[in-house]
Amino acid sequence: MIKRYQLTTFALLLTGSILRAQTKVAEFTPGAIWPDDKGVHINAHGGGMLYQKGTYYWYGEHKIEGGAGNRAMVGVHCYSSKDLYNWKDEGIALSVSPDSTNDIAKGCILERPKVVYNKKTKKYVMWFHLELRGQGYKAARAGVATADKAAGPFKFIRSYRPNAGFMPIYPEGTAEADKVNCDKPKDKSEGFFCRDLPGGQMARDMNVFVDDDGKAYHIFSAEENFTLDIAELNDDYTGHTGKFARVYAGHQTEAPAIFKHNGIYYMIGSGTTGWAPNPARWFTAKSIYGPWTYHGNPCVGNAAEITFGGQSTYVLPVEGKKNAFIFMADKWTPKNAIDGRYLWLPVTFKGDDIEINWLDKWNLDVFKK
Ligand code: DGJ
Predict the structure, then answer these.
(1) Interval between CA 305 and ligand 1 midpoint (Å)
(2) Which GO terms describe its molecular function (predicted)?
(3) CATH number at residue 143
(4) Averaged pLDDT of the chain
(5) 364 is a domain residue
(6) CA dihedral over 85, 88, 89, 92, signed as positive or negative
(7) Has residue 119 been placed in a domain?
(8) What's the pTM value of the predicted model, to 2 decimals?
(9) pLDDT in tens, 129-140
(10) I need a labelling partner for 345 at 20 to 30 A (CA). Which of 25, 52, 99, 308 fits?
(11) Is 254 in the pocket of ligand 1 (CB under 6 A)?
């Protein structure tokens, strides 16, 4: 027999959830719970964005309660928005497989999904960092899936370590002594490169960037995270051409995010400290293959030395606004992965330099039209 007070409580809870779901927001509150259109905290961690025909799509790791959420028990979640503040749950865009022998078997590690649209094939292409189920972080593979619609369903194609058998390219004028020589690797990082040359380079934290000319690049932590590779993707974006450059070798950079402004390539990344936050780092280059210049930590103010508690994942150009880029970071909560928060902050330009300052609350008016 359901008692009257139970009905009342249920009705109040339901009303609260509906109200939360229907409450439109018009500002960002970094680190706060961020309800989607159903009133549920957005579940798209280590995410990336796609803008198409007036709609933004947000793809990220779907986490579950507790520590198991650090593994892929569901897949890649997708949300859509017209204003970047209010997000509609579009469901699971790529599901992990119930087949334990599948590369993306339930319980694998599937991180940092990024989706780009290929204008030639009219396909949506998702790349992600894949670790095989039960093997910790040993596999260090890149995985790729495609879809006919932005919100999926995406179909897994394959996973592998990129650029097996290929040597890196170098900026013009690079001295022979500064190039990788696998007969005599100069340091630990080159040693890892040469070890992995036959079977393909390790590929962990990553991003994908499509340049103005439609060429796409996969940027990923390689060589036990000691180096970032910036690798050209083929014309349909589902494979690597073998052309790549090694960036900031020997410094263990993760969570790379690339954007372009006034003809300059920018990259923001992090150090390598597990789920714990560390100082962000930023770079610039005149060519996607470098040379890349390291500039230090772009964050300023309290907790800048730990990137305000977050770790980079994406930098989004805001449509219709000039010089408008949003730095997107994850505030990980590995003990209860599903509670992970999102730190979105505006990138401030000082000439060609950038700065990221903390704001408790802000909106897109901070960017000029
Ligand atoms: C930091 C990476 O950026 C995350 O994607 C994840 O792999 C954790 N390390 C695991 O410790």
Answers:
(1) 18
(2) hydrolase activity, hydrolyzing O-glycosyl compounds
(3) 2.115.10.20
(4) 95
(5) no
(6) negative
(7) yes
(8) 0.94
(9) 999 999 999 999
(10) 52
(11) yes
